[in-house]
Design brief:
single chain, alpha/beta, TIM Barrel, Sulfite Reductase Hemoprotein, domain 1, eight-stranded parallel β-sheet, five-stranded mixed β-sheet, 12 helices, binds iron/sulfur cluster
Length: about 350
């Protein structure tokens, strides 16, 4: 992992050697405090560690104060076009401000935001997005890594000219290659923490795939301090995809499920078992455990051996393994119930 500068956002920190923070964004009207709080609380429960709300009006900015009282994770305010909304959002308790350099205003107006952030000791994310990049850069470079990087550098310089260094950077594009390259360049040249994401990546399936590829490559290279998976779906889905991406790279503790694709050798209800066990594992939270569900004896025992706990199917039954040791056979009709009990015992250390 590349070391970045540590930045504090409310009661959380990012950068340095902190774990990668999972974040999402509400899709309610921010001024609808009840709906927004309810969505944030569900996201918190799903594992969201930082929430961002769009602030599009004075009412939205004022609502932040009440929302903050009812939630437990830091609140970032997403500001476009009107720097005065940024000032109001900060006064109403935003823990972080995201500004879009392409539309936030003049250098003097950014200076006013900086002053307010200093006063309240909160960071600014320079959130560059290929769809709303500064006009001159868009004309010069099109949707490319150069446009993203040059916009980032230009805006870092503006903030640094005010001696402000409480900065987080993001350079998101719908183009995977441009995004990856831009993050690589920034990571090599700056120590500010990086918020990584693939913007407007699409509906659940496509968005998950694009985000997994883009974010996976960056994270594998040690790039990224906070992650947001953008999906055209319920934001709760963003959290589970983010967790799975991080867990696949061993950057997050959650149970990992290994299961075989099944073939003509499968002789028990593996699909149903897998579906039920996956749901069950998702309720276990921050637990480091590898669980295997294998269809038959060809690869099953070997794969299940590498897992902490697993089953390998037989005819109408499955063999239970723990840490590579065969334990006992379980009848097909009891697999789901008994396998869950065995997983629970293993987590409690009772084996
Ligand atoms: S583990 Fe067995 S059932 Fe599963 S795909 Fe491999 S050979 Fe087929």
């Amino acid at each position: 992992m590349r070391r970045t500068k540590k930045i504090f956002i409310g009661n959380k920190e990012i950068g340095g050697n902190s774990p990668i923070l999972i974040q999402s964004m509400t899709n309610t009207k921010t001024c609808d405090v009840k709906a927004t709080v309810s969505q944030i609380l569900s996201l918190e429960q799903a594992g969201c560690e930082l929430i961002r709300c769009a602030v599009t009006s004075k009412e939205d900015a004022l609502a932040l104060k009440e929302i903050k009282k009812q939630i437990h994770i830091p609140l970032a305010a997403d500001i476009q076009f009107d720097y005065k909304l940024a000032l109001l959002a900060i006064e109403n308790g935003a823990d972080k401000i995201r500004i879009n350099p392409g539309n936030i205003g003049t250098k003097d107006e950014i200076g006013e935001i900086v002053e307010k952030c200093n006063q309240y000791n909160i960071p600014i994310r320079i959130g560059i997005n290929s769809g709303s990049i500064e006009k001159d850069l868009a004309e010069k470079y099109g949707n490319s890594k150069e446009a993203l990087v040059e916009s980032a550098i230009r805006n870092i310089r503006i903030l640094e000219s005010f001696h402000f260094h409480n900065i987080i950077l993001s350079v998101k594009s719908t183009n995977l290659e441009a995004t990856i390259e831009a993050y690589r360049i920034l990571s090599a040249n700056y120590s500010y923490p990086l918020h990584i994401g693939i913007t407007e990546s699409g509906p659940k399936q496509m968005g998950t795939i694009k985000s997994s590829i883009g974010l996976g490559i960056l994270l594998y290279e040690g790039i990224g301090d906070t992650i947001r998976v953008s999906l055209t779906a319920d934001p709760i889905e963003e959290i589970s995809v983010a967790k799975d991406i991080l867990a696949s790279l061993d950057l997050y503790n959650k149970p990992i499920l290994i299961s075989c694709p099944t073939c003509g050798r499968t002789e028990y209800n593996l699909l149903e078992v897998t579906e039920e066990i996956e749901k069950f594992l998702n309720t276990l939270g921050n637990v480091k455990l590898t669980v295997a569900i294998m269809g038959c004896a060809v690869n099953g025992p070997a794969e299940a051996k590498d897992a902490d706990i697993g089953i390998a199917g037989g005819k109408g039954e499955a063999l239970l393994f723990k840490k590579g040791q065969p334990i006992r056979k379980i009848k097909e009709e009891n697999i789901i119930k008994e396998f869950k009990e065995e997983i629970n015992k293993m987590i409690k250390g009772e084996y």
